[in-house]
Amino acid sequence: MDLFGDPAQWLPFTFAGLMGLSILIYVILDGYDLGVGVLFPFADDAEKDRMIASIGPFWDANETWLVLAVGLLLVAFPTAHGEILTALYLPVAIMLIGLIMRGVAFEFRAKAPAPYKPLWNNVFFTGSLMTSLAQGFMLGMYVMGLDYTWGHFAFALLTAVFLTVGYSFIGATWVIYKTDEHLQRKAISWAKGGIWGLVLGISAISIATPFVSPRIFDKWFDFPQILWLAPLPIVSGILVLSLWSMLRRMPFTNDRMSWLPFATASALWTLAYGGMAYSFYPYVVPDKLTIYESASAPESLWIILLGTCIVLPTIAAYTFLAYYIFRGKATELRYD
Amino acid sequence: METLLLSRIQFAANISFHILFPTITIALGWVLLYFRLRYNRSGEARWMEAYSFWVKVFALSFAMGVVSGITMSFQFGTNWPGFMEIVGNIAGPLLAYEVMTAFFLEAVFLGIMLFGFSRVPRWLHTTATALVAFGTTMSTFWIIVLNSWMHTPQGFEMIDGVAHATDWWAIIFNPSMPYRFFHMMLASFLTVSFLIAGVSAFRWLIGGRTQGVRAALTTAIWAAALLIPVQIFVGDMHGLNTKEYQPAKVAAMEGVWETERGAPLLLFALPDDAARENHYELGIPGLASFILTHEWDGEIKGLNEFMAEDGTPLHPRVAPVFWSFRVMVGTGVLMLLISWASVAMMLRKRRDGEGRRGVEGLPKIWLIGLVGMTFSGWLATLAGWYTTEIGRQPWLVQGVMTTKEAVADVPAPMVLSTLIAYLVVYAILLGAYITVIFYLARKASRGEPLPNPRRAGEATAQTVPAE
């Protein structure tokens, strides 16, 4: 049991890592399909069908990462789960109702009688928007230490807008990858219009985070840590600039590198997320509860870890399989 | 109203809405696999016709199940933080296994099952169907393990007020788990049987008399007729198990206030929790004792035995348990009568003496009755769950923690507002779900192609050659 040192130390750390990874995968994967929903009003009916087709085979599994992330929070850090979710009671409820609306609209828009299709399209958009806004709001409140004041509330409203625009950006890069011709060109202009949300969102959180918590301030600006951290904003800046120049010149001939904006956007998300994870560690409830204080008993974490070691590679393998099978461009609706 | 009651109503609303859809997908997955295998073996178009209609109902139900299931995983934190604080060490791993083994298996292979038909080889599509069915069953298994553990907890010790696991084998195979698991699996199969029978009867009535409808209807009626006696037997076993471990629940189910021998089976009564007695009792003498102890003068413990010293009851409110139990049993008996009578009519010889009458043996009025029974499985399943869950109160984990200890300190108006929002959304969605199923049935009966954009959407420039 003590193979790697004290299990009360490394088990919580491992689970924090796994949970963090699930959240990261979630915000990238469900980020793009939520973004596609947010972009719905800008598309005509045929384009809507095609956009749905581009996310159809994946959204179920994408959303499951949220269940895994919350599940890991629930099972590995039960007290933190209670504290965070009771503090975020209303935005969680709004997000859940949003997720319900968009999830079922997926099915209903295709199966309900034709006159109701626009209605379900609206439900899909509204649900995606509610979910994105609620998640952005929760992100802002979390950065502010889950502490309700008017200032924090205003900040959270800002991050709600930024995250939503950020999702629509990554959604647009997905559409660039999965479609071609007119819709693809449209998606390129969406992406150009949405990149500011991403930049402002990342900046706002980066600027606010150290000022909310003196602990994080020290962690960032003390020598020599600042040297370790410095590449993060620099690389992010380079990525943003290359995204911008790439989008201005797209589409390339023969649809070359249509996957690149999505991949670059994912890398940018990952960097921003890594910065946040670095700042908040070892706290799971900001400046209140560390992962070590809120972790479940080691013997329970062991049991979960055992399953995780078998299941995660399997999940990764068949996620890969699914993306491979449904690779390539999504075409318009076709009855067969 | 107070936060505790509102939170309970909210949880009940969420989980009641949620369970409707897994109840369908658990068994429908296996039924689809059956259709698919029959088609693989015989190559007959009717099995594929049945498959492609019901896979759409499956997709719709699955989506409803996924989104309402996500809600459930948040409810623990938002409304019941105390639950994970006290028994998180046990509930945690079980929930984790549910998510890991099952949810992903279903969600990922579902994509292949729904839209992979034309782009993956036949064996892979069949395998995907099988894995989705297996995944839903594993989901059921882990959730039932946790739920059963809450009814009959064992394999743990309390250290500083927090449960710590000592024996996982004992936790997983706790005394009520096998009964509850098989009871739920059979409930799911019966729900699906009556759903398929009802919708197929509807299609038959409005003129969609295809071979596929005939195959689905016949399969469903036979499945119902064969499974309902098994379910009644398993239910009886489950009752005996409950009597041993949760006698207060059984007392509430039977409406027995004072411990008595030769207790009657009450067909009707109005249990009065304030006066602690029943009004207008109508019962069959000795039968409750006979069913529960298999002896005519067997003893059944009464509710009055489950009182704290200070007079607070340590048993659930009687009326809801008493009545939901009767609704469940009543629906089950109706299922037995209808499915057996249907089989008898289908087995009658044709007038010309050539073979059996099959679906043509069912009179029109009888088919209308089957349509009426379409969602009878939901009714019985919900009533059964209400019986067992309300029957556990005031305990959340029997003998370990009460429901009151787990509830979050969220202001009541906040809980009320979200509760109303959930109820509105659920009511609309349930209406839309039922409407769309019958709309699809009407559309299929007119011979129009069914929309399946998700399957069409998968087709790309570089389609993998199928089979």
Protein architecture, described:
The complex is a heterodimer of chains A (336) and B (467). With 336 residues, chain A is mainly alpha-helical. In chain A, 79% of the residues lie in helices and 1% in strands. Chain A has one domain (10-325). Chain A has 14 helices and 2 strands. In chain A, helix 1 runs antiparallel to helix 6, helix 7 runs antiparallel to helix 12 and helix 8 packs across helix 9 (214-221). With 467 residues, chain B is mainly α. Chain B has one domain (3-259, 301-457). At the A-B interface, helix 2, helix 3, helix 4, helix 5 and helix 14 of A face helix 2, helix 3, strand 2, helix 14 and helix 15 of B.
Task: Give the number of DSSP strands of chain B.
Answer: 8
Assembly type of the chains comes to: heterodimer
Largest interface: A-B, 76 and 80 residues
Q: Unreliable runs of chain B, pLDDT <50, ≥5 residues?
A: 452-467
Mean pLDDT of chain A: 81
Percent of residues in β-strands of chain A: under 5%
| Count of helical stretches of chain A | 14
In terms of structural class, how would the helical and strand content of chain B be classed?
A: mainly alpha
